[in-house]
Amino acid sequence: MSSSDCKKFLIDYLLSHPMELISIYRGASEEFFKELGSDVAKENNWKRMSKERDGGLISRSFCLLPSKYDSGVAFSVYEDSSGKLSFGEYVGD
To answer: Is the model's pTM score more than 0.70?
Structure first.
């Protein structure tokens, strides 16, 4: 799988599981979340921060517009040896 495939997976996952974002940016305004949702949906807004291999598992971490949002927040996408993608977790500082 490519980074683009992983970004598309991440976008679909986060748009269908908004609580993941709400739990990170607690207390933010409704306008903030509307803008965040719009930014999340654009593949070019995601920057790959890392790619690691551990046996048959590949982990990629992505950050959403690091200059606009908290650059310390990254979301992980895991790819198993069969090419199946899954949402890992978010890592924040």
So the answer is: yes
- Residue 59 CA, distance from chain mean position: 12
24-58 pLDDT, tens digit per residue, is: 888 889 999 999 999 999 999 999 999 999 988 99
Write down the pLDDT at residue 93: 60
63: Cα within 13 Å, side-chain hemisphere: 17
At 31 the three-state DSSP class reads helix
- The strand pairing partners of 54, in sequence order, are 57
Tally of domains in the chain: 1
Q: Is there a contact between 88 and 77 (Cβ–Cβ < 8 Å)?
A: yes
| Owning domain of residue 44 | 3-91
Tokens of 7: 């970004």
62/75 Cα distance (integer angstroms): 5
